[in-house]
UniProtKB/TrEMBL annotation, chains A, B:
Domain HTH asnC-type, first and last residues per copy: 26-86
Protein name (Swiss-Prot/TrEMBL): Lrp/AsnC family transcriptional regulator
Region (Disordered) residue spans: 1-22
SMART domains (UniProt xref): HTH_ASNC
The keyword Kinase is annotated on this UniProt entry: no
Bias (Basic and acidic residues): 11-20
InterPro entries: AsnC-type_HTH_dom (IPR000485), Dimeric_a/b-barrel (IPR011008), HTH-Siroheme_Decarb (IPR050684), PF0864-like_C (IPR054609), Tscrpt_reg_AsnC-like (IPR019888), Tscrpt_reg_HTH_AsnC-type_CS (IPR019885), WH-like_DNA-bd_sf (IPR036388), WH_DNA-bd_sf (IPR036390)
The UniProt record lists the keyword Cell inner membrane: no
Keywords from the UniProt entry: DNA-binding, Transcription, Transcription regulation
DNA sequence: CCTCCTGATTGCGAAATCCGCAGCCTCTGG
DNA sequence: CCAGAGGCTGCGGATTTCGCAATCAGGAGG
């Protein structure tokens, strides 16, 4: 995951803007700009402009708008394992009642980095990042299962991260 | 997902560097720098330096090293849904035989954005991003299940992305 | 205790980039 | 035909990035 929507801040997918379809339709140029930034988030506007055929100022304005609209975000991404978080897991959640309210509750937990509503045997899939086994246990058994509406959960502890990209555009 | 390891490029988690523990130990200053860049990947080095108590040049060198080492990457992250990819899904995979080789095969597919080996009822969890239902069906039924060693799969189609952050450090 | 090395940090100018703004153009709607 | 809005371009001035040489700190040896 994690290539998913842009969390406006530390919070949730604020409005439900365009989770529906694609909301603001992006033209080919904006797509090209995004591709450039997917390769290098710090690439200078002038270089991007040259690549997509636009002036430096125009690129700057477009990027700012994409950022403001929440269509994209430029951030540093790391491997939690190299930064002190020893345990990560994907947790499948079975919900009874309103799924969205449960999702909101999980979204509020800082340990949950990724929350998505799904179709299938799980109603929600959540990625949690913890410092150690105790922490992971605490989050799953005490916090997540304590949320009203959570019927049961199933965990998949990460053994090894094999791939993580943000370059869909380039294919 | 997706806050996971840093794909060196378009490829996979190259070496298995430190999937083990945390490899190169990061000191508090580097952590602080990463936190700054998790908030804004384009923040100027001088501003970061002021925040972490280091000169502009020192920050620049540290960032460059973190990038070179593959500890972090600075990129644009979007919500695939707003960029034309209509279908996303998490796929749980049951493997017989060598899990790693299957993981490598999946990693090679451009539609698989995220591949992780897990403990639990699934041996692998894969996030796939497709343009439409046909494409998704093709990827899951023809491509993934065709990989030698894949015994069976279970899909969880994304209905709505609720949260996605990269700010674990700030808590 | 002194010296040699290595690695990280700092302090600069010079070059490149970012930023705000005014002017243009195009498209839409009175 | 005339606003008005939106998007682009050009252009200085302020900032930031870059490359480098000098400085510092921390061992390893002698």
């Amino acid at each position: 995951m994690h290539s998913g929507a842009v969390a406006s801040r530390s919070a949730d997918q604020k409005d439900s803007r365009e989770s529906r379809n694609g909301g603001t339709q992006l033209d080919a140029v904006s797509l090209a700009i995004i591709e450039q930034l997917q390769e290098d988030g710090r690439r200078p506007y002038a270089a991007i402009g040259k690549a997509v055929g636009l002036s430096e100022a125009a690129v700057r304005q477009r990027v700012q708008k994409l950022l403001d609209q929440g269509v994209m975000q430029i951030v540093a991404v790391t491997d939690p394992l190299t930064v002190g978080f020893r345990r990560q897991a994907m947790v499948g959640v079975h919900v009874e009642g309103d799924v969205e309210s449960v999702a909101d509750a999980l979204t509020a937990m800082s340990e949950c980095e990724y929350v998505v509503m799904t179709a299938g045997s799980f109603d929600l899939m959540v990625e949690v990042v913890c410092e150690d086994d105790d922490h992971l246990l605490e989050v799953i058994n005490r916090r997540i299962r304590a949320v009203p509406g959570v019927r049961s959960t199933e965990s998949f502890v990460y053994l090894k991260l094999k791939k993580q990209t943000y370059m869909w555009g380039t294919r």
